[in-house]
Amino acid sequence: MRDQRRAVLKEVAKEYGRTGYNPDRAMTIFGFVAELAEILEKRSNSRRASFAGAHAIKVYEATARKYGYKGEQGPVHCKKGCGYCCHTRVTATALELFMMARGLRARWNDDADPLKARFRRVETQTRGMPKEHWVTNRIPCGFLGEGACTVYDSRPLTCRTYASLSLPACIDWFNLAPGAVVPQPDRAQLLRVFILAGMKAAMAHTGLEGVGFEMGHGLEVAMVPDAEARWLAGENVFAGVANDAAPARAGGRQAGHEAFDLMVDVFKTGAFGKDMPPNPWFSW
User: Which of 39, 82, 181, 185 could bond to 69 as cystine, CB 3.0-4.6 Å?
Assistant: First the structure.
């Protein structure tokens, strides 16, 4: 059985190398997890966390172009200048935060660029604020400028995968209409869940913390020049940053979190040919 798994994984790795992650052949995600873990295990690279984050985003973008949403549920209503969805708390893994820090550091250190000042005004106001309060007060992301993302090329996975199938629903949500729900393409959410679970599986395999941190405060930490190297060395540089590891409410974690945790475990074990826990996705 173990030899059979190794043979399958070998073929999966070949397919992943040729075409990228294929959401219709879920085992190809194992190739992504294995490659990401390999990047994170290169201890000679003190910036391997940001490199891994950039690789994960690259894989997502390639996957979205080839296998992503093609309008099966109707047109996407998102466009530049529409920033309703940018008024909520965003979380990102450490890999994404260090990737963002690497991409934004030149602008961050340019006193003529208003990026840092605008970002810090919002971050200071929202640090530690519950997600519900952020939405209720309609607080914009610190990177939102004139309805558009000012760090578009460096944005994290959550922002890249969000898409709305109804502008009226976005407006209702923004205006706090009771029961307002924004419909999103199923395909986009599938890609997000699989890529995020793959990232967390690779981090778990290499002994790194895979929780999602509040983006604003987390990015402030990641911007410190030696923060990435210290985090990779095992220091808890994100201590004090709000994260998604704690229960979402008094009753426990939000619905679906247990299934996601199981998916991370399955990806972690499956990518390296180990015995998987019982799950609804893979039988070997």
Answer: 185
